[in-house]
Amino acid sequence: MHRFRIFLVFFTLPLLAAIGGMLMVAFADEIPWGYADDKGPARWGRLSPEFALCEEGLAQSPIDIRDAVETDLVAINFHYGETANNIFNNGHTIQVAIDAGSYIVYNGIRYDLLQFHFHAPSEHTIAGEAAALEIHFVHQDRNSGNLAVIGILLTAGDGEAGSAAYAPIFDNLPAQVGEPAAAGEALALETLLPASRGYYTYQGSLTTPPCSEVVRWLLLDSPLALSTEQIAAFRAIYDANARPTLPLGQRDLLRARR
Ligand SMILES: [Zn+2]
Fold it and tell me: How far is ligand 1, taken at its centre, from the CA of residue 255, in Å?
């Protein structure tokens, strides 16, 4: 009996500690935040100590793109394959999870493509002007954990090539949060990019809590046109999931010389 009690102490205490730790992590992931009122961007930094950078950070994103310094920059090398259309509504945006194997190489570092998602209106602005939507292709360096995010501005127009490539996504937008993934057709990721790959770049942050300052931003300087109907379909679900711009401060904003 005594031995059994010792067994209980030795095995249940670490187990309880582990469960407690998992609960705390789960709880931290569930701190509610949004885009309006007392849960909105101006309040993010005060919702949790883990979100402090949202208020105190000096390298935050998005920014207004203006007065970029033109310079010689390396090309972004895309190695995009196919992925199943794993589309879901996570309560903050519509997101597509990417099957392993697609990546970019930038400045000699490989960044694996993890997911892409949308914001309406665009988060980055060009000389104060927002576009209808912005897409973020989120990549991660598996060694450092740092991110490289490709941003593309999406405008309403007659871009038939763009709208056809995006049709499998915009025809299957899940309106309900947590709705099971729609079984859309496979996506050829390369076709989701504009033909021109010039870009702006600066060092910044996640545009959502916890606003971690680990992102090499690569904002393509050619917008992509979607149909008016496609943009309306997204904005019927999310019409205001964009963080306002933050100051560039002491950071460099560069543009690849053509
Ligand atoms: Zn984003």
Answer: 21
Dist. CA 15 → ligand 1 center (Å): 37
Mean pLDDT of 81-85: 92
Domain that holds residue 139: 45-256
* pLDDT, position 28: 46
Compute, in angstroms, the gap from residue 117 CA to the centroid of ligand 1.
6
Question: What pLDDT sits at residue 61?
Answer: 98
E-strand stretches of 141-214:
147-156, 182-188, 199-204
pTM of the predicted model as reported, rounded to 2 decimal places: 0.87
Q: Which of 79, 92, 136, 139 is catalytic?
A: 92
Give the lowest-confidence range in 25-34, 86-95, 202-211: 25-34
In a domain, 35, yes or no: no
Q: Which amino acid is at 149?
A: V
Q: What is the CATH number of the domain that holds 213?
A: 3.10.200.10
SS3 136: strand
Assess whether 92 carries a catalytic annotation. Answer: yes
Tally the domains of the chain.
1
Contact 248, 202 (CB under 8 A): yes
Q: Which residues pair with 139 in a beta bridge?
A: 113, 148
Q: What angle do CA 136, 141, 145 make, to 5 degrees?
A: 95
Distance in angstroms (rounded) separating the CA atoms of residues 42 and 220: 27
Measured in degrees and rounded to the nearest 5, phi and psi for residue 88 equal -150, 160
Residue 14 within any structural domain of the chain:
no
Give 217 Cα–ligand 1 centroid separation in angstroms. Answer: 11
Q: Flag whether 28 is in a domain.
A: no
